[in-house]
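Q: What structure does this chain adopt?
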Amino acid sequence: MQSPAHRALVVFFEVRIWEIPEGGLKRNMTEAVLELYGHSRRVGLIEWHPTGNNILFSAGYDYKILIWNLDIGEPVKMIDCHSDVILCMSFNTDGSLVATSCKDKKLRVIEPRSGRVLQEANCKNHKVNRVVFLGNMKRLLTTGVSRWNTRQIALWDQEDLSMPMIEEEIDGLSGLLFPFYDADTHMLYLAGKGDGNIRYYEMGTEKPYLQYLLEFRSPAPQKGLGVMPKHGLDVSACEVFRFYKLFTLKGLIEPVSMIVPRRSETYQEDIYPMTPGMEPALSAGEWLSGINRDPVLMSLKEGYKKPSNLVFKAPVKEKRSVVVNGIDLLENVPPRTENELLRVFFRQQDELRRLKDELSRKDVKIQQLELELKNLKNSPKPM
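A:
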């Protein structure tokens, strides 16, 4: 589970953990509190476990998912059941299951501690891009593309992926569809990359399961979206969801609030039930030993005032091999294809040019300093 003061960042073959100071950022950060090495190729995804403390999942272009125990700063488990790049990961409520979508056109439900695939769907008619667990409904929702290249969503029973419960076409646009699910209000939000709108639906347990409501429209297309955690919402304004919309214009982010229109100024308990807070339900050791617990719930009535008592202390690490399941993850792995070899070659060439430019600048600086020193020596001494 993610600490309120910590964030994870992907940097090529490694994952870095950063500590956000109390009160927010006031200057640029240059030093991470922890660097995690284990993937042999670029890291593409990271996800915090929803209930376990200091448990982080990372997926790389080596087709592997590593489970990190940040208490020791090492990978403790490896999921190695994918045959291509992993596109998306999503946890169920207590973190006992993880669903993945993959470039091999398969949807999987996995028991993460053992790495065992419990359910698998070969999505030939519905090419899956993103997947999300729908709270405690024991269902999955995926976004993808149909055989006619139209954007599509599908609803699945997590215990039977033989075929989707429903499939619904959205439109003929080409941008990737991102699903966001709010388990408190049973609302599903769909936002497309390059779109200017955000559709929202209500999810139900009975047919038709998916009820379209309305959509937010904007003339400015979005490049990506972030979400504010529940405890950061403005409950006095009946705000139930907040996006942070990244515009295609560089450096511009806009908050987009989803607000339920209510005239009453009292606390609206029907739209703000008890919600998962920031306190972990399990330690890393407890989760790894096989224990599952639901999230620790909190009320939004008094606002988010209670700070977390957890203090993260980065372990002291030495450079050494990282072995999981008898495999050294830091071993130099050669490129698998000619394209990978060319990418590595050009990346090295860019690095060489950068180093040569830096060396040239330092040579010029040295010459300037030598000239200044010579001028000082030749200048007449004061009488």
